[in-house]
């Protein structure tokens, strides 16, 4: 395509946007609503994923060593743990250290345990970290089979619940997004159809004098693209500013180090460009859908 | 130039519009196509610029077979065939100049080429002084001249006219005919469907009469032959 034609197509496409007033407004609104929901879900899902990730990194298996085990037997167990498949790292926590942590975590009430210093009832513990947090439960089962292991503990339950919740949010989000996407696409296709009907004579003459289908299609491509991108402006702006002010007021100070929101940048830029891309895609697709029918010779 | 070989056309609703037509039209000829309404004249004309596709047979214009050509090549074939209609088909919100230039813009000609060529064809149809007017500001005859200018601006070798004088009074019709004759003298082949008995009988050319989808008569310097 030649440069001056591109300028012409953009001008024509822009003209149609203005000419179709209310239908343009309806299509852009549909895209806006759709992208608003998409964007909100996107921010939610990305944050939930982020929580899940940071929690996952804390997943560990606590292996309580049989009190009767000798030093050699403990060494033996350590080598066996380290050679297990999927194990990333094994750390030894002697019972004295375990008691310190316990007393510390209980604060003032912990003082009563100070008396236990001489006959510590706790076990020595190996803390095992899995390479893939999702496989923690399998590794825990393997460890239970090993000799000199009294007990195995891990916090998989929380994760299972967390992942169920994330999956649910994803599924609901996806269904909602797809439904809205089709609505928006349908409205855009209808808007473009109006343009085409309004320009039927023009298209007929274009075909008579030998314009190619590609040439005829371009302004509608531009119109669809504009509808989609214009529809993305409002949700991207609102969601970006909204998230930024939310993050600045609450996000940074949740007080829990595993419960951190994603910082505003680059999150809003990722979200923004994705919404723009979805808007453009929906707009172009809707437009091409209605043009195709009209261009059959 | 134009060869039709055993052409048949049946519409999807069962109407048999053209029933086996063989015609040869040479380069530079001026041909009237006459016949009663509903005899297939319109279909005959429409097949020449590939608005309709024959059910059977071949139509060859400038060595291109309009029946076998691929969809995407049709635009390039149309650039070599100018068409004008009874209702002019001008774009109302474009000026005379823009209406003619439009035909060159959509095939992506350069601006300087467009300017030079449009002014030249407006001179041929004697509308140079009305280039800035809009279609509703000029007479029917002038509008048809704009349509002619648009049809010939890309230098087609064939000009197809579907009842070009159908909406015009006798005096204006003659104006149009003189312009068409002039264009014909410059070497453009002209095929014109018409009901205008006076014109056919006065400005004698080859006459092809179509009745019941067949060629009933094909005479050099023929006459209209129907009462009306």
Automatic annotation (TrEMBL), chain A:
<keyword id="KW-0132">Cell division</keyword>
<feature type="transmembrane region" description="Helical">
    <location>
        <begin position="21"/>
        <end position="46"/>
    </location>
</feature>
<dbReference type="InterPro" id="IPR040690">
    <property type="entry name" value="FtsX_ECD"/>
</dbReference>
<keyword id="KW-1133">Transmembrane helix</keyword>
<dbReference type="InterPro" id="IPR058204">
    <property type="entry name" value="FtsX_firmicutes-type"/>
</dbReference>
<comment type="function">
    <text>Part of the ABC transporter FtsEX involved in asymmetric cellular division facilitating the initiation of sporulation.</text>
</comment>
<dbReference type="InterPro" id="IPR003838">
    <property type="entry name" value="ABC3_permease_C"/>
</dbReference>
<keyword id="KW-0472">Membrane</keyword>
<dbReference type="InterPro" id="IPR004513">
    <property type="entry name" value="FtsX"/>
</dbReference>
<feature type="transmembrane region" description="Helical">
    <location>
        <begin position="172"/>
        <end position="197"/>
    </location>
</feature>
<keyword id="KW-1003">Cell membrane</keyword>
<keyword id="KW-0131">Cell cycle</keyword>
<feature type="domain" description="FtsX extracellular">
    <location>
        <begin position="59"/>
        <end position="152"/>
    </location>
</feature>
<dbReference type="Pfam" id="PF02687">
    <property type="entry name" value="FtsX"/>
</dbReference>
<keyword id="KW-0812">Transmembrane</keyword>
<comment type="similarity">
    <text>Belongs to the ABC-4 integral membrane protein family. FtsX subfamily.</text>
</comment>
<feature type="transmembrane region" description="Helical">
    <location>
        <begin position="218"/>
        <end position="247"/>
    </location>
</feature>
<dbReference type="Pfam" id="PF18075">
    <property type="entry name" value="FtsX_ECD"/>
</dbReference>
<feature type="domain" description="ABC3 transporter permease C-terminal">
    <location>
        <begin position="175"/>
        <end position="284"/>
    </location>
</feature>
<protein>
    <recommendedName>
        <fullName>Cell division protein FtsX</fullName>
    </recommendedName>
</protein>
<feature type="transmembrane region" description="Helical">
    <location>
        <begin position="267"/>
        <end position="286"/>
    </location>
</feature>
TrEMBL record, chain B:
<dbReference type="GO" id="GO:0051301">
    <property type="term" value="P:cell division"/>
</dbReference>
<dbReference type="InterPro" id="IPR015854">
    <property type="entry name" value="ABC_transpr_LolD-like"/>
</dbReference>
<keyword id="KW-0472">Membrane</keyword>
<dbReference type="InterPro" id="IPR003439">
    <property type="entry name" value="ABC_transporter-like_ATP-bd"/>
</dbReference>
<feature type="domain" description="ABC transporter">
    <location>
        <begin position="2"/>
        <end position="227"/>
    </location>
</feature>
<dbReference type="InterPro" id="IPR017871">
    <property type="entry name" value="ABC_transporter-like_CS"/>
</dbReference>
<dbReference type="InterPro" id="IPR005286">
    <property type="entry name" value="Cell_div_FtsE"/>
</dbReference>
<comment type="function">
    <text>Part of the ABC transporter FtsEX involved in cellular division.</text>
</comment>
<keyword id="KW-0131">Cell cycle</keyword>
<keyword id="KW-0132">Cell division</keyword>
<keyword id="KW-0067">ATP-binding</keyword>
<keyword id="KW-1003">Cell membrane</keyword>
<comment type="subunit">
    <text>Homodimer. Forms a membrane-associated complex with FtsX.</text>
</comment>
<protein>
    <recommendedName>
        <fullName>Cell division ATP-binding protein FtsE</fullName>
    </recommendedName>
</protein>
<dbReference type="InterPro" id="IPR003593">
    <property type="entry name" value="AAA+_ATPase"/>
</dbReference>
<comment type="similarity">
    <text>Belongs to the ABC transporter superfamily.</text>
</comment>
<dbReference type="GO" id="GO:0005524">
    <property type="term" value="F:ATP binding"/>
</dbReference>
<dbReference type="Pfam" id="PF00005">
    <property type="entry name" value="ABC_tran"/>
</dbReference>
<keyword id="KW-0547">Nucleotide-binding</keyword>
């Amino acid at each position: 395509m030649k440069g001056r034609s591109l300028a012409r197509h953009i001008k024509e496409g822009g003209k149609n946007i203005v000419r179709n007033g209310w239908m343009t407004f309806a299509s852009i609104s549909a895209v806006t609503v759709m992208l608003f929901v998409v964007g909100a879900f996107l921010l939610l899902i990305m944050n939930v994923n982020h929580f899940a990730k940071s929690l996952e990194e804390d997943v560990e298996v606590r292996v309580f060593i049989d009190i009767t085990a000798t030093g050699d037997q403990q060494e033996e167990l350590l080598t066996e743990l380290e050679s297990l498949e999927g194990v990333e790292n094994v750390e030894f926590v002697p019972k004295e250290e375990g008691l310190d942590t316990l007393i510390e975590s209980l604060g003032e009430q912990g003082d009563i345990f100070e008396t236990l210093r001489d006959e510590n009832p706790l076990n020595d513990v190996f803390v095992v970290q899995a390479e893939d947090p999702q496989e923690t439960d399998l590794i825990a089962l393997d460890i239970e089979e090993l000799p000199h292991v009294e007990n195995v503990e891990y916090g998989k339950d929380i994760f299972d619940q967390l992942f169920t919740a994330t999956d649910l949010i994803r599924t609901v989000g996806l269904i909602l997004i797809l439904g809205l996407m089709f609505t928006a696409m349908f409205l855009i296709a209808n808007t473009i159809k109006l343009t085409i009907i309004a320009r039927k004579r023009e298209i007929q003459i274009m075909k008579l004098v030998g314009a190619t289908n590609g040439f005829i299609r371009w302004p509608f491509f531009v119109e669809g693209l504009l509808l989609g991108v214009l529809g993305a402006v409002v949700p991207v702006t609102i969601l970006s500013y909204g998230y930024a002010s939310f993050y600045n007021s609450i996000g940074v100070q949740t007080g829990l180090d595993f419960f951190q929101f994603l910082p505003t940048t680059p999150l809003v830029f990722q979200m923004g460009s994705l919404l723009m891309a979805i808007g453009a895609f929906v707009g172009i697709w809707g437009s091409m859908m209605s043009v195709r029918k009209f261009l059959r010779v | 130039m134009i060869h039709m070989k055993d052409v048949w056309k049946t519409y999807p609703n069962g109407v048999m519009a053209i029933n086996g037509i063989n015609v040869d039209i040479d380069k530079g000829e001026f041909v009237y196509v006459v016949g009663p309404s509903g005899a297939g004249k319109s279909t005959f004309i429409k097949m020449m610029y590939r608005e309709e596709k024959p059910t059977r047979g071949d139509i060859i214009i400038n060595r291109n077979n309009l029946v076998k050509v691929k969809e995407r090549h049709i635009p390039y074939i149309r650039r070599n065939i100018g068409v004008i209609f009874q209702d002019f088909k001008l774009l109302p919100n474009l000026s005379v100049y823009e209406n003619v230039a439009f035909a060159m813009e959509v095939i992506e000609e350069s601006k300087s080429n467009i300017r030079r060529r449009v002014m030249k064809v407006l001179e041929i149809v004697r509308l140079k002084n009305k280039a800035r007017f809009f279609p509703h500001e000029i007479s029917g005859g002038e509008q048809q001249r704009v349509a002619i200018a648009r049809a010939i601006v890309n230098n087609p070798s064939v000009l197809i006219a579907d009842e070009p004088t159908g909406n015009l009074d006798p005096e204006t019709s003659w104006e149009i005919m003189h312009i068409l004759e002039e264009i014909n003298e410059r070497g453009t082949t002209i095929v014109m469907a018409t009901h205008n008995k006076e014109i056919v009988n006065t400005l004698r050319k080859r006459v092809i009469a179509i009745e019941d989808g067949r060629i009933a008569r094909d005479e050099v310097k023929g006459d209209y032959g129907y009462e009306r």
